[in-house]
Specification:
The chain is built from 16 helices and three strands. By secondary structure, the chain is mostly helical. The protein folds into two domains: 204 residues, Citrate Synthase, domain 1; 101 residues, Cytochrome p450-Terp, domain 2 (Orthogonal Bundle). Strand 1 and strand 2 form a beta hairpin. Helix 6 packs parallel to helix 7. The protein is globular and about 70 Å long. Bound molecules: coenzyme A. Coenzyme A binds next to helix 15. Coenzyme A (COA) binds next to helix 15.
Length: 383
């Protein structure tokens, strides 16, 4: 066969290719650091709020008091979903994964917003803020719809507390709010990952912010990206107890299966986000009196580091986040929508940043097929 391979550099999956400049976030995979606009993630996780971090990612600095008030009032100006969308979510969650419902919700909101045909920076910013403001109510409504429960509309202005109240129908404790807020901050941005890249590819065509976020949600859905925490928890529940960890992991590795919640394209050391979540997973397990799942996770971590630590395989953020969300009362199918609830700020900030110096993404593929020219044979004569 004659092939058409071209003489050009080739990076499978774009690995290692630098395709954009950014001032938003830096993943230092060698030293295990995650930096948002110069701040270490540990510092923000301890002291900041999700809204403040979103402002930081979007506008490049921590807000003053009045900037913060102005920002949160824009987020909360129109932060509920209507009955029509709730009905759609009820239908979607009967047949498909909540991520499909979330993708549909964002696409629906774009279709209903008459400003989504305006593509200037101010319109893109307004769309992003409106969508982000609605996100807690969308994800909480998916949670309610999935459980066959009615929608709850809270007037609580705080992003985290509103989401928890609308999900469970009661005010969260201070500790629950702190844990969940920390998880949101830790997941807000993470370099040029697949979903962020998808949102940027879409916005680079001068499409609208709803479409960019819809693309991002579609790519976050997969188990190699956002779906890993659901699968990691499922695996831990199958292992069941610390003493089974060694045997089960050895069998999985023997079959060349990937252990969900381990390894990372960029981090070759312990993921700093996993370190913080591990602490909260332990504290929640102790508080709720269910420590076996956490102890199983710790044992799996020990076994994996023993076996694959030399290859740079360590727990990533998804390994402990599932335990945290389960302890807070969420069904595992909600874990990836919760990831999106946080990552919307990174998708929005990076797409918005990219638009300021836009260039259409258009990589090439290496053609390995027949170059012909072949002669067309009518269908009746083909065998
Ligand atoms: C994230 C991921 C796709 C990165 O893959 P990658 O960049 O190809 O990983 P590496 O090149 O560092 O892998 C090095 C080696 O470790 C193995 N490895 C990587 N992650 C592994 C895992 N989770 N379980 C078992 N083996 C793993 C690879 O197969 C490779 O083995 P080899 O040397 O025999 O070829 C991969 O680690 C993975 O699938 N992890 C599980 C899914 C997950 O948790 N995703 C969430 C990421 S935040």
């Amino acid at each position: 066969m004659i092939t058409g391979s071209q003489n050009t550099d080739y990076a499978r999956g774009l690995e290692g290719v630098v395709a954009a400049e950014t001032r938003i976030g830096f993943v230092d995979g060698i030293n295990g650091r995650l930096v948002y606009r110069g701040y270490n993630i540990e510092e923000l996780a301890e002291s900041s709020t999700f809204e403040e971090v979103s402002y930081l990612l979007l506008y490049g600095k921590l807000p003053t008091k009045s900037e913060f008030t102005n920002f949160t009032s824009k987020l909360n100006a129109d932060n509920q979903i209507n009955d029509q969308l709730f009905k759609i979510l009820q239908e979607c969650t009967k047949s498909s994964h909540p991520m499909s419902a979330l993708r549909t919700a964002v696409s629906y909101l774009g279709a209903m917003d008459k400003n989504s045909n305006k593509f200037d920076l101010a319109a893109q910013e307004a769309m992003g803020l409106k969508l982000m403001g609605k996100f807690p109510s969308i994800v909480a409504a998916i949670n309610r719809a999935q459980q066959g429960k009615p929608i709850i509309r809270s007037t609580e202005p705080n992003y985290t507390a509103r989401f928890l109240e609308e999900s469970f129908g009661k005010k969260p404790t201070e500790f629950e709010t702190k844990v969940f807020r920390t998880a949101l901050i830790l997941h807000a941005d993470h370099g040029m990952n697949a979903s962020t890249f998808a949102s940027m590819v879409t916005i680079s065509t001068l499409s609208d912010m709803y479409s960019a976020v819809t693309s991002a949600i579609a790519s976050l859905k997969g188990p190699l990206h956002g779906g890993a925490n659901e699968q990691a928890l499922d695996m831990l529940e199958r292992i069941g107890t610390p003493k089974n960890a060694d045997k089960v992991i050895a069998e999985m590795l023997e079959k060349k299966e990937k252990i969900m919640g381990f390894g990372h394209r960029v981090y070759k050391v312990y993921d700093p986000r996993a370190k913080i979540l591990k602490g909260y997973a332990k504290k929640l397990a102790e508080d709720k009196g269910h420590t076996e799942l956490f102890e199983t996770a710790e044992e799996v971590e020990k076994v994996m580091i023993n076996k694959l630590g030399t290859k740079g395989i360590f727990p990533n953020v998804d390994f402990y986040s599932g335990i945290v969300y389960k302890s807070l009362g969420f069904d595992p199918t909600l874990f990836t929508p919760i990831f999106a609830l946080s990552r919307i700020s990174g998708w929005f900030a990076r797409s918005f940043e990219y638009l300021h110096d836009n260039r259409l993404f258009r990589p090439r593929s290496m053609y390995k097929g027949e170059v012909g020219p072949l002669k067309y044979i009518p269908i009746a004569d083909r065998r």
